[in-house]
TrEMBL record:
Binds 1 Fe cation per subunit. This is Thiamine thiazole synthase. The lineage of its organism: Eukaryota, Fungi, Dikarya, Ascomycota, Pezizomycotina. Its cofactor is Fe cation. It comes from the Eukaryota. During the catalytic reaction, a sulfide is transferred from Cys-211 to a reaction intermediate, generating a dehydroalanine residue.
Length: 315
């Protein structure tokens, strides 16, 4: 049993599209083909509206209860956060992993390759990550230094479908991390010990609504992947600077694909006790370059962030 009382499930036990798991099904299920041409007699089974409400809310509140003590919280479900979640959930089915995403739609900037263009470019050797997750891509051959996914949304939707099938992952979307839980040790070091959350619509209205107090999640390790500074981004590291737990931010530098991608992957680490930073949020800490529309570093920074997080549980 895992720490939340569930039986651990190995990745190999999570079926793919050809064998969709139907929990609790007792009889052979109808197929769509069997419905064809029979629309005049068609009827859905009856339902009472309250059943729908209860099925949704019961699960959500049970998840709030279960994940109030998580093993790992990932802040931000962009390409780096989702890659982190995939690696962690696969490696450790016994750990409870909460993903907090401010937006209604998870995926961050990875729904398009760059500007409004569809294709997503990944420099080798990040093609290994695409094979690992099962994202189809084009490779121009041995001499080519990069591969191309025909639409960035294919990458992001595949990541989401894999990550959300893990039984030990819960995505709380439309939920913002609006502060960090911190503990000061006797030597003065600040340790991040969880996150403070609120509905995103509430956080957007702190100026014109009376105080609506937040909620909390405790966890020994937080992985922050909230992207570079902007209306939303770099949230956790900016908060750490405000609390004097990180001296200052280096600030994201100009675009240099070759320098930027190596630096982000290599630099992904625990920047302060309890806080691992990956993806473009790290460029703000280290004063690293941006890479623009090439996503290999986001995937591999996720791989490294997961590796760093797992050290905490191996100690
Ligand atoms: O909504 C944000 C996005 O989905 C989410 N987020 C930000 N602040 C949050 C908060 N609470 C909860 N306080 C929050 N969620 O974090 C996600 C960040 O995703 P992203 O795609 O912006 O970041 P990434 O680091 O995964 O990928 C960066 C992609 C970039 S930017 C770039 C450049 O500018 O040069 N190049 C690449 C490849």
């Amino acid at each position: 049993p895992t720490n939340n009382g569930q039986v651990a499930t190995k990745l190999s036990a999570i079926p793919h599209a050809s064998g969709v798991p139907v929990t609790g099904a007792v009889k052979p299920q109808a197929t769509v083909e069997e419905m064809a041409g029979k629309w005049s007699d068609f009827r859905f089974r009856p339902i009472r509206e309250s059943q729908v409400s209860r099925e949704m809310t019961r699960r959500y509140f049970s998840d709030l209860d279960k994940y109030a003590e998580s093993d790992i919280v990932i802040v931000g479900a962009g390409s780096c956060g989702l890659s982190t979640a995939y690696c962690l959930a696969k490696a450790r089915p016994d750990l409870k992993i909460a993903i907090i995403e401010a937006n209604v739609s998870p995926g961050g900037g990875a729904w398009l390759g760059g500007q409004l263009f569809s294709a997503m470019i990944m420099r080798k050797p990040a093609d290994a990550f695409l094979r690992e997750v099962g994202v189809p891509y084009e490779d121009a051959g041995e001499d080519s230094n990069y591969v191309t996914v025909k639409h960035a949304a294919l990458f992001t939707s595949t990541m989401l479908s894999k990550v959300l099938q893990f039984p030990n992952v819960k995505l709380f979307n439309a939920t913002s991390v609006e502060d960090l839980i911190t503990r000061r040790s006797p030597d003065g070091t600040l340790r991040v010990a969880g996150v403070v959350t609120n509905w995103t619509l509430v956080t957007m209205h702190h100026d014109d609504q009376s105080c609506m107090d937040p909620n909390t999640i405790n966890a020994p390790i937080i992985v922050s992947t909230t992207g570079h500074d902007g209306p939303f981004g770099a949230f956790c590291v900016k908060r750490m600077v405000a609390m004097d737990a990180i001296p200052a931010l280096g600030g994201m530098r100009g675009l240099d694909m070759n320098v930027a991608e190596d630096a982000i992957v290599k630099g992904t680490r625990e920047v302060a006790p309890g806080l691992i930073v990956g993806g473009m949020e790290l460029s703000e800490v280290d004063g690293a370059n941006r890479m623009g529309p090439t996503f290999g570093a986001m995937a591999l920074s996720g791989v490294k962030a997961a590796e760093e997080a797992l050290k905490v549980f191996e100690e």
